[in-house]
Amino acid sequence: MEVVPLASAAETAVVAADIVEAVVRRKPAAVLGLATGSTPLPAYRELIRRRAAGTGPSYAAVTCFNLDEYVGLPAGHEQSYRATIARELTDGLGISPDQVNGPDPSPDGLPGAGERYEALIAQAGGIDVQFLGIGADGHLAFNEPGSSLASRTRIKTLTTQTRKDNARFFSSVDEVPNHVLTQGLGTILEARHLLLIASGEGKAAAVATAVEGPVSASCPASVLQLHPHVTVLLDQAAAARLDRLAYYSEVYAAKPAWQGL
Ligand code: PGA
Predict the structure, then answer these.
(1) Crossing angle of the two packed helices 41-52 and 9-26, in degrees rounded to 10
(2) Of 144, 165, 193, 235, which is the active-site residue?
(3) Regions of the chain with pLDDT less than 50
(4) Which one in 87, 121, 133, 150 has a CA-CA gap of 20 to 30 Å to 192?
């Protein structure tokens, strides 16, 4: 796990954008794993800004897979993750909706939606780089505490805390769905490069447990310790509770120029 302590959320956005652009330059038909939530938005805006400025790569050949999706919202609902990803990222990168995949939350499609989504990801050759956020409770995607570390894409029930956290996107907490489809922790571990971003003091405890605590289903994000290529981009507040913070900063400062993230 490469922990990168940075000064601000804006800096995490620049480094995240550098990483994603490098992947797409190296492999124009890259498979990108996309996350919703507030945390990746600065990185998404940075990618869109660079493309508009003419310095970004072409995204014409990429394929995208969303991490998760609400179950129970009307199709096309503006808070569905399919609509959110289009609005916040892919439209701005010139990626057409048919290049973007998400788990199928339709009532008819629900049984078997997880297996079908896994098959689609496999058919695309797996995910090259996966954006991830972390919940204040340590959840990863919508794998809430207690999720199997080997879990696959499936339906999950949100905790009351997560529904409250997400109520800011709806007019009331009652409108936040109870159910979601989410990539499992085992699914996420199969992506070739995992890019976890966290900002703000509300994430500091979860980040410390995920990075330095025991690997445990009680903190689903701790499963990242088992992956060979994880980059954790943190602003100062999110990094504040890490015991080895000074060491991570030394490692990043001493990083060989040829190595890249
Ligand atoms: P946030 O959500 O980026 O909106 O904080 C992250 C998450 O819940 O995984």
Answers:
(1) 60
(2) 144
(3) none
(4) 87
